[in-house]
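Can't paste images in this forum, so I'm doing it all in text. The chain is below; anyone willing to post the predicted structure tokens underneath?
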Amino acid sequence: MHELTAASPAGWLHSARRARLLAWASLAWMTLEGAVGVAAGVAAGSIALVGFGLDSAIEGLASVIVIWRFSGSRTFSETSERRAQRAVAVSFFLLAPYVAAVSVRDLATGAHPETSWVGIALAISSVVLMPALGRAKRRLGARLGSAATSGEGAQNMLCAYLAAAVLAGLLGNAVLLRGGGQGRPRGVARRRLLLGHAADRRLTIPSGRSAPRGRRRRPPSRPPRPAP
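Text version of the structure:
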């Protein structure tokens, strides 16, 4: 880090500001992702979406650490960098086993998250956004000699993998429900239609027949008059 600072202090400081800015952007996205993921998961009854939303808190912790690392006098501090590296490593080892446990659980139980179009949109956004953030942070981490920034980028990549897994589950479940339920609504609708016709006949046919019978009925004949 000293070599980079001595060779190009202005460029290094610019990269440090970019790392802090990207960390702020990640933190804002993780906050939104967590809130929407948990809300959509609770609404759909999806454990996978709830877990995906809670996972955002671990990734947001890494962003907070990098923001702390490149703020104020800590920007050029190697001691702060070492502390940030250790803290990001702890958050990384919290995140990696979580992703592995969720994957093993889904494979073992055959669990399928409920369909949630909000969750699908959220997962697609994370699949697109997180790899871009992760690559940018890794490049900045290499320029700055900051393993903390590179580690945060690695967590963004893990978030993209988890989002892809959740997206595959949500889309697969939506297709299964759509394909398996196509015949049932038609059958239910047909039965309801037949029952409705039968009810209409029971209600309308007697009243409809009463009128014709009334018209066809002859008036009672008068009794014969007695002979004079």
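The helical segments are 2-7, 9-44, 47-69, 78-109, 117-144, 147-180, 183-216. The CA atoms of residues 46 and 114 lie 5 Å apart.
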